[in-house]
Specification:
- With 340 residues, the protein is an alpha/beta fold.
- It contains 14 helices and 14 strands.
- The chain has helices at 33-42, 60-63, 66-73, 81-91, 99-122, 126-134, 137-144, 151-162, 166-169, 229-234, 249-254, 259-266, 274-284, 304-315; strands spanning 2-8, 15-20, 23-27, 52-54, 77-79, 178-180, 187-189, 192-198, 207-213, 216-221, 240-244, 291-295, 325-328, 338-339.
- The strands form 2 sheets. It has a 7-stranded mixed β-sheet with strand order 6-5-4-3-2-1-14. Strands 7-8-9-10-11-12-13 form a 7-stranded mixed β-sheet.
- α5 (99-122) packs antiparallel against α6 (126-134) and α13 (274-284) packs parallel to α14.
- The longest helix has 24 residues, at 99-122.
- Bound molecules: zinc ion (2 copies).
Length: 340
Amino acid sequence: MVRFTVLASGSKGNSTVVTGGCTRILVDAGLSCRELFRRMKLAGEDPATLDAIVVTHEHQDHINGLAVIARKLGIPVYFTEATHRAWMRWLTPRRQMSYAQWMEQCRRQAAERQAEAQPAEAEGEADEAEPVGGIGPDGIGTDAIGTGGAQSEVVQAVEAAAAEPPSARSDPTWLPAVEYFQAGQPFAIGDIDVSPFTIPHDAADPVGFVFRAEGVRMAFATDLGYVTPNVKAQLKGVDLLLLESNHDLEMLRDGPYPWSVKQRVLSRVGHLSNEAAAEFLAGGYDGQARYVILAHLSESNNLPELARVAAERALEGRASLLANRLLVAAQHEPLSAIHF
Ligand SMILES: [Zn+2]
Ligand SMILES: [Zn+2]
């Protein structure tokens, strides 16, 4: 069975469930855990059956509920390494400190190192003791992604962490398991083949996906400033195309956003307008998909009818009984599940 269920789409939260064979993947975790579970039930999906979460990029509307959902379900999260790092930075922002505070911190750390080194030297274990000081979140992260590494160092780091007070111990970036993928390198999660591809967007390492299960291909392309030749190539020969139709150009220009934000949205690493989506549908798209879903509509700068009309016009020449059934994904309610 192959099923595609958009639970939420838009700048306030994105989540979709892709089902193929016995595997269920959550694409992005932009809703809170409670809201995700509520919508999954509404859409006839059981949260407990999710096998993994894949993440397109680290913007808040795609990862808001990520840690809580992954922990609650005990499932792995698939990121690119750069996106994982950006997500961790987002969760643990660095404190700003003055020069005097920085100097004080350096002095304190030097004193601590000296105090640690002295007894170790006496026992002749200076070489072993040293890496412990060097193990930061990176060492623990290495363990979490399952790529091995110096076990004893990790054990020591974990023991060191356990000795700290509970507030320091609770790590907001902890996930049950992390798997890395790279754009351009397909991989499989259970019965679903996943092909990630690079998209132009102002995030660390943003991707779109083509999912394939039981011969059905489903493409996922939102949060992209424009349709690059590579994106165009990826979106060929798909049975389902979920495509961003973020804003109406006039509404954005006349709308409430400050000029700097308007510039960002309009830029080559911003979001796809109704007009740009239509241009792609009329020209670059091969017209093969049974379903075309317009997604990531802005609530401030778009109307579902404007997005739909622009796409309908673009698809006019491709009307057929079997292809290009047009749907518009919403922010506040799930789209009816699409079955293949
Ligand atoms: Zn987004
Ligand atoms: Zn984004």
